[in-house]
Amino acid sequence: MSTSMNQVLIDSRGIPTSLRFTDASFFIEPTKLDGHKSSCCAGIYRRVKCTEVPLRNVVSARIASGAVEVQYLVRKGKESRLNLVMTSGTVQNEDNTRAKKWCEALILVAYQGANPSKNLKVLVNPHGGKGKGSASYVSKVEPILLAAGCTLDVTYTTHSGHAIEIAREMKLGYDALVIVSGDGLIHEVLNGINQHEHRNQAFCIPIAPIPTGSGNGMSLNLLGLQDGLDVCAAALNVLKGQPLKTDLFSFTQGDRRLISFMSQTIGITADIDIETEQLRWMGDTRFILGYIRAIIARKSCPIELSMKVVDQDKSRMVDVLHARRAGESPSPSSLPSSLLSDDKKPDGASSSHEEWTRFERPILWMYAGQGPFVSRALMQFPVSLADDGLIDISIQEITSRKTLLRAMDGAEEGQTYWINTNRYFKASAYRARPLASKGMLVVDGEQVPFEEFQVDVLNGLGTFLSPYPHYAPEFPVRDIQGKTQGTSV
Ligand SMILES: Nc1ncnc2c1ncn2[C@@H]1O[C@H](COP(=O)(O)OP(=O)(O)OP(=O)(O)O)[C@@H](O)[C@H]1O
Where are the transmembrane segments (predicted)? Predict the structure, then answer.
C-alpha cells in the first residue's frame, strides 16, 4: 500500500478508505478485503468505488478529534448544481501529525497557495429576485465560507439604498465584498464605493456576486451558463476566484453622476424592466413575458444619439474577442488603425473615436453596456470584453413585429441568443437626448428619468472575482433568426 505524502488511509464508517490527491484532482477510494478475512491478506485491497473531485472544488481539510475531515463541492449529475459534502474518518495506520501534514498539503494545492480564510464583508438582500436570498445564504453559502475558515461580517439590507451607505463607510481591510442579491445591489455597492473617502483603494476590493436576484447578469458573465445561477459555485468563486479588472461607466446627467457597471437601456428594453417589477416572483421569466408584451405594443423611442464610435463590424468584433481570449494583450489606447479605415467609418461619416457620430434612425431600443449577459435569456453584448476601455452599444431600429418575435426562438430554458440588432457599435463614449415626452431609462436595474445624459468609460476601474481571466468562455450565440453564430464567442 502506498504511504506517499499524497495519500492517507482512513476508516470511514467501517470502510477502509484511501484519500489522495494529484495536481488536478482529489480522490476518495473506499477499499475492502478481496474475499479474504484472514489478516495475512490485510494488504490486498480491491477498489470498490472511486470518487474524483476537481481540486478546485476542495474547500477544507482538517483533523478533528482524531478524524480527517475533507469538505468539497460535488454535482449529483452532470447538469446538476454543486453541493457541499464531507468525507471523514479516523486515521488508520497513520499518526495524527502525518495526517495533519497531509491536510495542509491538500489545502495548499487546492488553493494554489492562497489563504482560504478570507476576511469578507457580506451583504444579503432579502428582497432580491424571488426573495430567497436570505434562505440561500444561510443554507448554502455561509456553510461553504465557514468551512474554509472565513471571517464573515454580514449585513442584511433593510431598504433600497442601504448598500450604498454600507459601501461608502466600509473599512478597507476586506479581502472581498460578497453580494448576495442581483445586479441591482452590485450597482448600489459600486456607487457607495464611488463616494468612499479612499475611493481608489475601495474599488480594488473585489466583488463576488452570489446570484439571488432576477437577472444575475454579472454572475452569469463571471461563472458561465452552467454555474452562473448556482449559489454554491458562486461561493466557491469567493474562495478561489482571481481578481478580474472590468471597465465601469460614468453616467452623467446634469449635476448627477452615477457609476454603471453593466448596462443602460432606453425604449422597449427599459420598459420591460420597469413594467415587470411586480412580477419579481417569476425570476427571470418576467423579462421574457415583458419582452413579448413590449413587442406587441412596439412603441418607438425617439432619441438623439451620438457616439464616439471605434468599431461597428460585428465579425471583426468576434475576431478581436477570440484574439484576446487566445492571449493577445488588450489594445484600448492603440486600437488597430484598420478599425478606423475609411470604408468602416460609421454611416459614411468622417470619424475617429475622438469624434462624435450621430445615429439618426428611429429606434425601438438602445442597450449599452458590457458583459455578454444581462440575464440568462438575453445575451445582449456577446462580443464584450471586460477591460477593453469600450462600451458596446446595441441598437434596434424599428422593424416588424414578426422579426422581433422570432428572437424568442432563443429564449428557451438554458438557451441564449444575440438579438441581432440592426446595429452594434463599440464606442469610447455616447450621449443620448429624448426627442419626445420623457420616460424612464434603466441603469443597471435602477430607474432614472430619461433626460439628456452622457456615458464615458472608466477603463478597468472595477474589480470582480472570477474563475477565468476573461468573462466566462463558450457562450453559444444565436441571432434573431435562431441561427447559430458561433459556439465559443
Ligand atoms: N430590504 C430591502 N427591501 C426592499 N428593497 C431592497 C432591500 N434591500 C435592497 N433592496 C433593493 O432591492 C433592489 C433589487 O435588488 P437586486 O437588483 O439585487 O435584485 P433583482 O432586481 O431581483 O435582480 P437583478 O438586478 O439581477 O435583475 C435593489 O436595487 C435594492 O435597492
Answer: none
